[in-house]
Amino acid sequence: MQYGSGLRLMELVRLRVKDVDQNRGIxxxxxxxxxxxxxxxxxxxxxxxxxxxxxxxxxxFDDDRASGLAGAWLPKALNRKHPKGxxxxxxxxxxxxxxxxxxxxxxxxxxxxxxxxxxxxWSDMIVQRAA
Length: 131
Prior knowledge:
Blueprint lengths: L1 H4 L3 H5 L6 E2 L4 E4 L8 E4 L5 H20 L9 H6 L19 E2 L6 E2 L5 H15 L1
Antiparallel strand pairs: 1-2, 2-3, 4-5
């Protein structure tokens, strides 16, 4: 997805479920370079995989909500506009962390996005297997 859509690393890990539209084949990147929003294409070859991933993410989201985790972190202005937005499905991260952690600002337990180090380690492993 990163290479096929031309996404930078942090753009990729910060994607939300609502930002990946497999039906229209569009990825919306928010607050990209220069603090601007942009759209890019989702490769046709990944659409079925994205649909499957969203189904698995929905299960994880439902489990997190059932266990009482706070929703995903939202930027301050967005959180003021939609105070319960982080608790809703569309705002969850497309690449969530494996384990929930304590939010340093709110002190709530929540699931953040995967860290760039974890992603780099994972992608290096994939490249080595392909070689």
